[in-house]
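User: Sequence recovery, please. Input:
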């Protein structure tokens, strides 16, 4: 029996040597210890962070456009997209509260009408981190027409229908125009 023990020990040492050299032991690059082990993230939190970053990239900043001149029209940017209007509409409707299987909303036959209310440019002034610029204000009135179905599941399950629902949402599309002799080339001095 003593003669078999070293063979098993030798076999175990060879097995550890083979497994240790497979590349799965996380020793490549900087050694981070237990921080090198990936931690699974719930898709819910990942989706929430992606939506937050997408909103900041698309709508969270005021763009800085070139200067206004006699040849360029001083009309505002494009009207708000249907996605932007729908996002604001859902934000307003979710403030009323929706709970799965207890109180749910369903919207059908959605039509979005966008009307420009105002379009004007402020006089030039100096803005921090931007410099001399003009603020261009464009305000839109967006009316969302829809058919709504509200399903209430508790205490007595029932359905409420609103065949001619309408919601008015105001969206501001403000942006900046640079003012003065603007040179943004490679040799520009600030």
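Assistant: Recovered sequence (190 residues):
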């Amino acid at each position: 029996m003593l003669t078999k023990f070293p063979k098993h020990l030798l076999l175990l040492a060879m097995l550890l040597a083979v497994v240790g050299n497979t590349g799965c032991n996380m020793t490549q690059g900087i050694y981070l210890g237990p921080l090198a082990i990936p931690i699974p993230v719930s898709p819910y939190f990942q989706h929430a962070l992606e939506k937050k970053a997408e909103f900041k990239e698309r709508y969270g900043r005021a763009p800085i456009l070139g200067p206004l001149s006699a040849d360029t029209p001083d009309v505002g940017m494009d009207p708000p997209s249907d996605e932007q209007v729908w996002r604001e509409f859902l934000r307003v409707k979710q403030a009323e509260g929706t709970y799965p299987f207890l109180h749910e909303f369903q919207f059908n036959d959605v039509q979005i009408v966008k009307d420009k209310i105002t379009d004007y440019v402020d006089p030039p002034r100096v803005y921090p981190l931007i410099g001399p610029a003009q603020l261009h204000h464009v305000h839109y009135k967006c009316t969302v027409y829809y058919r709504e179905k509200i399903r209430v599941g508790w205490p007595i399950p029932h359905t409420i229908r609103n065949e001619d629902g309408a919601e008015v949402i105001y969206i501001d599309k403000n942006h900046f125009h640079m003012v003065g002799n603007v040179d943004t080339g490679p040799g520009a001095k600030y």
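The two ends are 85 Å apart (CA to CA).
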